[in-house]
Amino acid sequence: MDPGPYDGAVLVKWIRCTVVDRRGFERGQRKWAGLLGEPGFRGQSGGWSRERPEEAHVFSFWESRAFYDSFMARSHDRLAAAQSGTYRNMRIGLFDHRFDVKTGFEPRFTDADVVRVAHCKVRPDRSDHFALMQEKVWNPAMAGSPGMVRGLFGEAPGEDEFLVLSMWWSAAEHGKYRVERVERLSLRAQTSADVVSLSGAVVDLEASWTV
Predict the structure, then answer these.
(1) Is the separation of the CB atoms in 119 and 199 below 8 Å?
(2) Which of 30, 49, 54 is nearest to 115 (CA)?
(3) What sign has the CA pseudo-torsion 46, 47, 48, 54?
(4) Where is each DUF4937 domain found (predicted)?
């Protein structure tokens, strides 16, 4: 089912967990096709971390926090039941879409093989500078990389936490960007002065998880 014309991902949900029953987890993941038709739902996909093969990542997109909260109150537990007992250490982050990386973002996963997700905790007095450097330094660099498809920059409401999510044709293309540019860009953007901690993953997308 086509959710219709895309007019902006307002809320981004990022889920990480350690999977203890891979087959059961993947079977349950396919049950999330039940999200289709939920009011305000715009898309979902995910896959496995390249660095930590037992770690699963899922990304979902909603038009607004109100639509998301309504889904959580009504339908979430029924869909989630299929994965009960297949994972541990689940961590969930909610982020408001601030701006796009490269062209207009849409939660479409069919033209990308890899998602790079970076989670940044920033010093409170440096949040504005960090966001500005993302827009002026990092975004043009990523947008100019041949293998980069699209991405977004999100902010956790009320927190000094940010999410940078980028989609790539392949891990090899993302690797070229990292090797050639990251150290130089970090110096230019004064990243070490802004960021308290940085974590993330390179995620190989699983087509069967895409809703």
Answers:
(1) yes
(2) 49
(3) positive
(4) 11-95
User: Where do we find the tokens 């999510």?
Assistant: 165
What fold characterizes domain 11-209? Alpha-Beta Plaits (3.30.70)
Which pLDDT tens digit goes with each residue over 137-183?
888 888 788 888 999 999 998 889 999 999 998 877 777 766 666 77
Local structure of 207: helix, strand or coil: helix
Tokens 């998602």 correspond to what residue? 115
Nearest to 118 by CA among 47, 4, 203: 203
* Assigned token pair, 176: 């070229």
Q: Where are the domains of the chain?
A: 11-209
- Which amino acid appears at position 188 of this protein? R
Query: Cα separation of 145 and 100, whole Å?
Result: 15
- For the entire predicted model, the pTM comes to 0.89
**In this structure, what are the phi and psi dihedrals at residue 8, rounded to the nearest 5 degrees?**
115, 120
**Cβ atoms within 10 Å of 21's Cβ, excluding its own:** 13
Q: What's the pLDDT tens digit per position in 92-135?
A: 999 999 999 887 889 999 999 999 999 999 999 999 999 998 88
As a three-state string, the secondary structure of 156-204 is CCCCCEEEEEEEECCHHHHHHHHHHHHHHHHHHHCHHHHEEEEEEEEEE
Token readout for 188 is 């230019």
For the chain, what percent of residues have pLDDT higher than 90? 69
